[in-house]
Write a structure and sequence with these properties.
With 258 residues, this protein is α/β, with parallel strands linked by helices. It has a single domain, classed as Rossmann fold (3-Layer(aba) Sandwich). It contains eight helices and eight strands. The longest helix has 21 residues. The radius of gyration is 18 Å and the shape is globular. The N and C termini lie far apart (52 Å).
Length: 258
């Protein structure tokens, strides 16, 4: 192959990748510390359609970690403020705003319109709801969470890899974990994990690389240490196992802080 032919082949591959991303549809649930950097990275990469789900408005306490917002956005619905910023910087991205809370009733319909879901919530109830709805809808998704200097992430391909309930069949009780208000969230940690979520979404849409499936990636920023825990899809999982007992998304009331 000549240098010219190699250059043309490379250009064709890049063009094909851009086309695949332009056709891609990613839903981000929670436009906060995880969702804001994920949205920015996906838009910058050339994703065609972004869906944003969040019922909150921008508060001054959000600004230190939710990097898509400015002081001028205070009081505005998060999805509208984020969409306005994305439209200014990345006008080719179509942004669909859902200024509503994700529920057991609307999750399945929302997820079915997208190729990939980014779970950017930071509440136990929301994470199990995203997990259940995505698995039941057969929509791949990225699970993640952050608290203080710690973050974790994994990607789920429904029916093919371990889901959140394979790891923890039932959510912990509200008093078994510290709240975000008690432990705090370090903005840079949320940003790091959110960018990784966007990266796995891009890899899935492009069909390249190795997704973070059947593995839980943990990040201890205080110790500057990464760790990967191997997982497996469990036959007795109540959601994705051989004899599932969960057939509809389960709504679990718990506090949410993004």
């Amino acid at each position: 192959m000549t240098h010219k032919e190699a250059s043309e082949s490379k250009a064709q591959r890049f063009a094909g990748a851009r086309e695949r991303l332009a056709r891609g549809r990613v839903l981000i649930v929670g436009v906060g510390g995880l969702g804001a950097p994920a949205a920015l990275q996906l838009a910058a990469a050339g994703i065609g359609t972004l869906g944003l789900v969040d019922s909150d408005t921008v508060d001054v306490s959000n600004l230190h970690r939710q990097i898509i917002y400015r002081t001028a956005d205070l009081g505005r619905p998060k999805v509208m403020a984020a969409a306005a910023w994305l439209a200014t910087s990345y006008p080719n991205v179509s942004v669909h705003c859902f200024a509503q809370r994700l529920t057991a009733d609307n999750a399945g319909n929302l997820f079915g319109d997208f190729d990939f879901v980014v779970d950017a919530t930071d509440g136990i109830a929301s994470k199990y709801l995203v997990n259940d709805a995505a698995v039941l809808s057969r929509v791949p998704f990225s699970h993640a969470g952050v608290l203080a200097f710690h973050g974790q992430m994994m990607t789920v391909l429904p029916g093919r890899s371990a889901c959140l309930r394979c790891l923890f069949p039932a959510p912990p009780k509200p008093d078994e974990l510290p709240t975000c208000q008690e432990a705090g969230i370090i903005g840079s940690v949320a940003g790091t994990i959110g960018v990784l979520q966007a990266t796995d979404a891009l890899k899935y849409l492009l069909g390249v690389g190795e997704l973070l499936t059947d593995r839980l990636l943990t990040y201890d920023a205080a110790a500057a240490r990464w760790r990967t825990v191997t997982l497996r899809r469990r036959g007795d999982c109540p959601l994705c196992g051989d004899h599932p007992t969960i057939h509809t998304p389960v709504a679990v009331e718990n506090g949410i802080c993004e």
